[in-house]
Design a protein that fits this description.
Strand content: 15-25%
Shape: globular
CATH superfamily: Glycoside hydrolase/deacetylase
Number of strands: 17
Length: about 260
């Protein structure tokens, strides 16, 4: 079994940590660091359209406030929707268990209220988690966690411990000896090509290969701001190439829960 899990972090535009507060901001584009959502909203429309056209069911990790703010959440129909914090909090900096529980509860409520789904999947904001989070997640109905990186290897099967199944994002070394992970942000920033991610997937002969991206990154570069229409078109086409090339490597596109069930 070789499954491709295409995953999307649906969160505020170009998110950044804000000193002295748990709520994340957005990179200042000249109007301050208050959270912005327009690129995430626009990117969701483009990305969901591409996925639907290709017949690929993705797993979205939705930040609660983003989900409650955008106007096109219907684009998530047919896809798996999990949680990604409420305000893109670095949960590892929050020691109070009640505060963590409140954030999880608000995040879950946002997904249920907006999409009607009971979320089963979790990805920690900033990919930062700890054992405390892993222990409490099952109590909130979360069964799948994709908050870690793991070296791409011949066999990448999910590991379940204490009722929580961990499905990591692969990482490795490319043909030039440089580090690479299966997050697409370097491609969106024009420092990597689609083939780099296809080559990383070729290391896996069995199991689940997770690709990750952000909806806002389809239309906004962290380094250069909102993209031109031509650049957005090229960026979207590159995402298509990544998906197609990994499918050509023998992977079947599935949501995270479906992939885990298929893996047995």
């Amino acid at each position: 079994m070789k499954a491709l899990c295409f995953t999307v972090d649906l969160d505020r535009d170009s998110n950044i940590q804000m000193p002295g507060q748990t709520q994340a901001g957005s990179l200042d584009r000249g109007a301050g660091t208050e959270p912005r959502f327009s690129s995430s909203e626009h990117g969701l429309e483009i990305l969901s359209g591409l996925l639907d056209e290709m017949g690929v069911k993705a797993t979205f990790f939705a930040e609660g406030r983003t989900l409650e703010t955008i106007r096109n959440a219907e684009c998530l129909s047919g896809h798996e929707v999990g949680i990604h914090g409420y305000d893109h909090e670095d949960l590892t900096t929050i020691s109070d268990e009640k505060e963590r529980a409140e954030i999880l509860s608000r995040s879950i409520a946002a997904v249920k209220d907006v999409t009607g789904q009971d979320p089963r999947c979790f990805r920690a904001p900033f990919m930062r988690t700890d054992e405390k989070m892993r222990v409490i997640l099952p109590g909130f109905g979360i069964r799948y966690d994709s908050s870690d990186y793991a070296d791409a290897s011949g066999t990448m099967l999910p590991v379940t411990k204490n009722d929580l199944c961990r499905i990591p994002v692969p990482k490795g070394i490319d043909r030039n000896g440089k580090k690479i992970s299966a997050y697409l942000w370097p491609m969106h920033e024009m420092t990597r090509e689609p083939r780099d991610f296809a080559e990383l997937s070729s290391c896996v002969n069995e199991g689940i290969f997770v690709i990750a991206t952000h909806s806002w990154h389809i239309v906004e570069s962290r380094s250069a701001g909102v993209m031109s229409s031509q650049r957005i078109k090229e960026n979207t086409e590159n995402v298509r190439k990544v998906i197609e090339s990994i499918i050509d490597n023998g992977f079947c596109p599935l949501t995270i829960p479906d992939a885990v069930n298929r893996a047995g």
